[in-house]
Amino acid sequence: MCCRKNSIESFGRRKALVTSEDFREHQADYFASAIAMPKSTFIPLALEILKSNGITGGRVITGIDWEHDWFAEDEFPRLIAKAYGVSRQAAAIKLQKFNFIVAKDNLQPSLF
């Protein structure tokens, strides 16, 4: 099996892949998300959803209150999943990869 070592969409962080099954699943999910949710349309849509829900700063931070946690864990991924016809889990992963959903303990400067 031959896989790219660099990221198609310039993701900075990598998930710890323990088994070869984890690695294969991650590669399949990553490839599918890049095809199903292209960066060129994903970013503007995610920013518009945040704005329309009154969230400023280009991301939602979890671990602050239940409203932000609910939005990040349920509503935001559901809206993205509906727009692209993907699973909520795939949408949530992509939102986290692009730092649209960030845990309070993992704050980094916003990319947008």
Question: Which features would summarize this protein structure in a list?
Answer:
mainly alpha; disordered N terminus; globular
SSE layout and pairing:
Layout: H1 20-36, H2 39-52, E1 60-62, H3 66-84, H4 88-97, E2 101-103
Parallel strand pairs: 1-2
Helix pairs in contact: 3-4
How do you describe this structure in short?
This protein is mostly helical.
Distance between the termini: 35 Å
Percent in strands: 5-15%
Cα gyration radius (Å): 14 Å
Shape: globular
Main beta sheet strand tally, sense and closure: 2 strands, parallel
The neighbouring-strand order within the major sheet is 1-2
Structure notes:
This protein has helices at 20-36, 39-52, 66-84, 88-97, and strands at 60-62, 101-103. It is mainly α. It has a domain at 39-105. A two-stranded parallel ribbon has the order 1-2. It is globular.
